From TrEMBL:
It holds the Pfam family STI1-HOP_DP. TPR repeats lie at residues 50-83. This is STI1 domain-containing protein. One of its GO terms (cellular component) is histone deacetylase complex. Residues 10-26, 144-156, 163-174 have a biased composition (Basic and acidic residues). Keywords: Repeat, TPR repeat. Residues 1-26, 144-204 are annotated as: Disordered. The keyword Repeat applies. Residues 227-266 form the STI1 domain. GO terms for molecular function: Hsp70 protein binding.
Amino acid sequence: MGDPSVEVSDESRDASQEAKAKAMEAISEGKREHAIEHLTEAICLNPTSAIMYAARASVYIKMKKPNAAIRDANAALEINPDSAKGYKSRGMARALLGQWEEAAKDLHLASKLDYDEEISAVLKKVEPNAHRIEEHHRKYERLRKEREERRTERERQRRRAKAQAEYEKVKKQEQSSSSRKPGGMPGGFPGGMPGGFPGGMPGAGSFPGAMPGGVPGNVDFSKILNDPELMAAFSDPEIMAALQDVMKNPANLAKHQSNPKVAPVIAKMMSKFGGPEK
């Protein structure tokens, strides 16, 4: 293989053409190996000629050596990107290798640059195969997109199911929390008022509705839970703190009797325990 970057003298060009002529004569006599030798000599004498590479590529095609033909065709196209013979030779070589799509592309380019009957004949064999491959690619791409869409949909459903499960879990927790409230006093008196006010309510004589001796065991707390005023009072932190203080130590009742906010609530609660309010 020659060097396409070297300077070629007129004598070398003439000698290259003589070698090419000998190659054409050898081809006409069926002596393809001799033709390759003469064309190789021509390339060495004038490595800047795309025609010489393309001519040798065409001989390699006749010898059923497509890879060698493609190498020479590529060399020809590197020297001259508009070499019709370069595209033609490469297209025919690719057809021999079953590279139908690439072959069709090269042959169409060759036909646009310099149409001939041989290109047309080869295209008639190449194009049906190229079309089948193109259809296969389109079908594969369609199936790939469908698989991707199904995968995306499965992922969407998985996320939706996960979100729904989380929602149901939170909902059940809220329902469970809600269902426990009727069984006790909201805001910190679970299970009712444990033990009542042991030992009686101090100052019972002066506190309306007070119940000496503690809260009876048969108290119906639903009366308290169904009283909207008491339920509203239980949401007041000051009132709840006072009630808890009294439950810890009933003797603390006295210090809350003067609180205008707390005393009425305790009085109303005790009226529920002991009977109707006065």
